[in-house]
Amino acid sequence: MTALGAAAVGPHSVESSSRPGLQSFEGYAITCVLAALEMAGLLEALEGAGLRPPPRGEGGGEAGRLLEASLRYLVQRQLAFEDSGAFKLTESGRALTRDKGYLVWLAGGYGEPLRRLDAFLLGRKSYARDYPRDGRWVAEGAAMLGRRDVAPQAMTLLKGISFETALDLGCGNARFLIAVCQTFGCRGVGIDLSPEACQAASESVRAAGMEERIRIIQGDAFDPAVSSHLGRAQLVITFFLLHELSSRGGSALVDFLSSLCSALPPGAHLLAAEVLPPRSRSGRPERFTPEFSLVHALMGQTLSGETEWRQAFRQGGFLVRDVTRVTMPGGVLLLGQRAA
Questions:
Q1: Total structural domains in the chain?
Q2: Are 77 and 12 in contact (CB under 8 A)?
Q3: Are residues 92 and 148 in the same domain?
Q4: pLDDT digits (tens, 9 = 90+) for 131-171
């Protein structure tokens, strides 16, 4: 049973444990509710001093009624409790929301294409044309889960190298780039294809007071025009980006790494975060990696193993300086360097 399923069982554990379909049913609803509260900016209060819905008949309207219903649902699932009209999380609820980034990434970022999977299977609709992912919530969810499960190890790796300019390809909301520039005193450039992600990134940069040191550009990280920024970058960051080249087939990944390496100054580093594919013969259920593989299959992308990543880096001209497993299930950091 997954952690989410266990939390969803509630007082009917005997009945629910014998009906796994209901566990999935409950887990889906819990995921949607918690992700929606986070996306609406309401979960922070529920995690903190408490979230108090507007009193009935005092202007709350339909939104207030739905908020109260959502909170009472969490109470029924033993994930929240009511205290003098304010709703707060139980310990089980807090355990779930520590991983809220995964919930937002899946429900907010990929909820619509997954809901349309039947149309894709029948060939009636296309992911890219009809129901693509929501770039904003993919970026926001990835930033949240990365803050806990990737960033700490990444920052440790970066302490061992020197750089004055960082280029973040696929920067999302730029919070990691901001943290890097603040911690190491460097300048930064963030590039992302999603206009929603770039808007969120620009807002994050302004909120951090870093407009003089960080520039956000909307564009394709794989576009050759990006090379104009590479000659000055001593560090390139690509978090959960390079696997997207798998949909282009053939030698696309190695070709991109080769062009990237040749445009960088000697001694520059490449820090990439990726997710390895599920271990087909692990003998036990795996967390996250099967779901990560599924949503990327929607986009025609496949995941590479650690050996394949090492080989691609070397073929692209990078020396592999470090490979670190992170606390994200299946997550890995690869640190490469162009020869001096």
A1: 2
A2: no
A3: no
A4: 999 988 998 899 899 999 999 999 999 999 999 999 999 99
